[in-house]
Amino acid sequence: MSEFVDYAGEELTPAIALMLVGALLEGVSLMLLIPIAGLLVHGSSQGGGLSYLVNFIPLENRLGQMAVLLGLFAAMVAVRACVLTLRDRRLALLQLGFIDQQRSALLRELTAAPWSFVASLRHARVTSAVGNEVHMMAATAQLLLQSIVTISMLVAQWLLVAFIAPWLSLMVAALGIIGSICIVPALRKASHRGFQQVERQTAVMNAAGQLLAGLKLAKAQNAEAAFLDDFSRHTDALTGNQIESLRRQSRLRVSNASVAAVVGAVMLLAGMALKMPPPILLTAIVILARMSGPIMTLQQNAYHIAAMLPSHASMSNLRKSLRQSQADDERASDASTAICTIGTQDVHYRHADGGGVTGVNLNLRRGEVVGITGPSGSGKTTFIDLLTGLLQPEGGQVLVNGQPVDASQFRQFRDRIAYIPQDSYLLNDTIRHNLAWGRADVSEAAMWRALEASGASQFVGQSQNGLDTPVAERGSRLSGGERQRIAIARALLRCPDVIILDEATNAIDVVSERLIIADLVAMPSKPMIVLVTHRPETLRLCERLITFEAGQIAPEIHLRKIGGKATLAPDRIGVPPFELNR
Ligand SMILES: Nc1ncnc2c1ncn2[C@@H]1O[C@H](COP(=O)(O)OP(=O)(O)OP(=O)(O)O)[C@@H](O)[C@H]1O
Ligand SMILES: [Mg+2]
């Protein structure tokens, strides 16, 4: 609620004013019932409320007076309906804006969080927060506001009863307190089910994500049933929870309706026993009958709020943990600084399960072509993530241009690094949009040059829509090699000082890969090129070879430079030297 109040700010004042005006109009229209009932029962106005109004009506006959009073009543009801419409529209707009603001804030915090933290988050956790929890949060705030409105209406109505029938009002207040105490256990259960709901919702999201990601493989192996079973298990659990919640709500409604009927009867009898004048008693009963609806709404709201607060708590916890994880200093400079060297001094990093790198000392220079190899899981990608500042070393330091840099200082170098990871990521958009991603100033000519260098110009040129060809989700309309070529072209458009390809060419044939790397080496800016690969053919293009073994660097091999041609010791890779120049 506090987040909603912060968001709404001054906008909340007119909404609250409309709520109060609505409550006031409700009270006034109900007060009009007293003279109406008086005219109906006695043929003249009697009792309290607005009975004196009849004296101002310049008509003598009863029918005329009644027509005026009913006209006033109808006008009041119409004005109140307008006010309530305005109130609801304002609240709905506030709610939509609040959802948008919360979602954007979550995504902003997500992008500002360190990679090590983001990598540990389940995708479903985030999609559930963005998709469901944010809606629940807004709905909770909305229900709270509505409840405030309902309470203000009820207070207005109760004051009226207190004014015309004090004893009845005391009985109503006592019953209200008893009812509130009785509902507490139901609210506790609703809250418990709310927590289960959050967990089960996330589990369904997770299962759906897994199903989509693995469906191709599952189809190829006739294993769809296993996926469906898993998905059904989660949806059944979620639906079961929702059905149980509905069952309890309807039980609550039935008991509420029964209690309201009994209370009404008791009030009527009590009024007769207290010998209350019929117009007053009638009006009080009408008001009490009107109060029973909002009281039930209030109870339902309390139930829904109890059930939805866990979603609110889950979203708040996620945002809090994202904020706490933020290592990047927002005030850090965004100015881009050229990179000449990147090095590590005794760098150490361990993932949660124990894998990582230890005691890594290296210095890589601009203009070098460095090959990084080693068995799977030996720490190559972890090292690259440290080198690019995605991970912060737990020991030792990363140096750029000879200076130690922390997370916040890394920002100024990011524009100068092109990192192409193992799984080349493409947006579900056109090739043009993918190439220009994050850069507004890329010309079409530059795009074609980059596509030429990455060996993609031919297939892009041949496709019907050229640069405007859509690549579909995660580039699924392209072959693996084509995806990698687009990813490399996009990286080249950044004009980087450092190009890191982490097995980013493994889907490209060896001959094309050689041509692409030769193009990178020939770039006039002479970038540092770091190639992480298992392929001997690729390693033969490098001047230095770094081999990781169980998180450590094996003795480094410096390749001999013979007449400007990079070559690799044949005994190490088992293949003959290869000329770098085309
Ligand atoms: N996010 C992570 N959480 C937990 N452990 C991780 C994570 N990333 C990597 N590891 C572990 O750290 C070790 C090194 O992983 P890394 O990805 O650096 O290996 P790699 O040399 O790049 O392997 P490959 O050649 O298969 O890409 C592995 O044991 C891996 O299981
Ligand atoms: Mg790797």
TrEMBL record:
Membrane-spanning intervals of the chain = 12-43, 63-86, 143-161, 167-187, 254-274
**Cellular component aspect of the GO annotation:** plasma membrane
Q: Where in the cell is it found?
A: Cell membrane
* GO MF entry, a single one: ATP hydrolysis activity
Record-linked InterPro entries: AAA+_ATPase, ABC1_TM_dom, ABC1_TM_sf, ABC_transporter-like_ATP-bd, ABC_transporter-like_CS, P-loop_NTPase, Type_1_exporter
Q: Where is the ABC transporter domain?
A: 342-575
Residues of the ABC transmembrane type-1 domain: 15-307
Give a Pfam family name.
Answer: ABC_tran
**From what superkingdom does this record's organism come?**
Bacteria
Which coarse location class describes where this protein primarily resides?
Answer: membrane
- Keywords assigned by UniProt? ATP-binding, Membrane, Nucleotide-binding, Transmembrane, Transmembrane helix
The keyword Transmembrane appears for this protein = yes
Q: Which topology term describes how it sits in the membrane?
A: Multi-pass membrane protein
PANTHER family named among the record's database cross-references: ATP-BINDING CASSETTE SUB-FAMILY B, ATP-BINDING CASSETTE SUB-FAMILY B MEMBER 6
Which named protein is this?
A: ATP-binding cassette subfamily C protein
User: What organism does the UniProt record list as the source?
Assistant: Novosphingobium hassiacum
